[in-house]
Amino acid sequence: MGLSDVLYAAYTRRLTKELGASSVPRHVGVMLDGNRRWARARGAGTSEGHQAGADNIANLLSWCDEVGVEVVTLWLLSTDNLNRPEDELRPLLGIIERAVDSLADTHRWRIHPVGALDLLPAATASRLKAADDRTRDVMGMLVNVAVGYGGRREIADAVRSLLQEHASRGTSIEQLAEVIDVEHIAEHLYTKGQPDPDLVIRTSGEQRLGGFLLWQSAHSEFYFCEAYWPDFRKVDFLRALRAFGERQRRFGS
């Protein structure tokens, strides 16, 4: 072990000791951004960047497990990404399929796909649903894999589901308009029944939400990290938790 490794390990231990109970969010959302730029900076192909990013996911989930996070939402593919050229999209979907299969195979975490699965190729949607099915009884941390996900699409789908539910009951539009509220819509989101994210992390230096968990993040704290996702390390995660713990949450007040 070289000197840099010794220093890194010591710094990691120090950061861990600095974390208090208030530093551990129940739900962490992560925007895994920067795979393509990471690859470009190294003269590598786009698929190599996506694969490097996929290889880092299990590390993040292990770090979350260690500190007691209950729910993690990983944004792996947006609805906008579905418009990418076929020669980039197809390999990316393959990498996502294999990554999700690998996470499910560990039986450490419950895997739950969130997104407009109907927009995905049937084979991809089937793989995601299969991972959900075979980890349904796992007692570990819940991991939402957001594939074919867009915040606006989620809200539209929630409203559509709400309308269909009430139509099946014979509720008129006028009757629904009198009673509909925030909670009614929340019950039809992809993440229904889950706590809203306390902390949202975005890598690669971009400082915008980009449509991630639009409804659920109304009171979330945000942490922006300069590192590209494949370079995101445990110390980066611990710094995000430390920053979260130092904030005085106001929940919109």
Q: Identify the CATH architecture.
A: 3-Layer(aba) Sandwich
Biggest sheet overview: 6 strands, parallel
The CATH C-level class name? Alpha Beta
Share of β-strand residues: 5-15%
- Principal-axis shape equals globular
Using only C-alpha atoms, the radius of gyration works out to 19 Å
Corresponding CATH superfamily: Decaprenyl diphosphate synthase-like
Distance between the termini: 49 Å
CATH T-level topology: Undecaprenyl pyrophosphate synthetase
Number of domains: 1
Number of strands: 6
Total helix count?
10
Quick overview of this protein structure:
With 253 residues, the protein is α/β, with parallel strands linked by helices. It has helices spanning 3-18, 35-41, 46-55, 57-67, 86-106, 122-134, 151-169, 173-179, 182-186, 234-246, and strands at 27-31, 71-78, 110-114, 142-149, 199-202, 221-224.
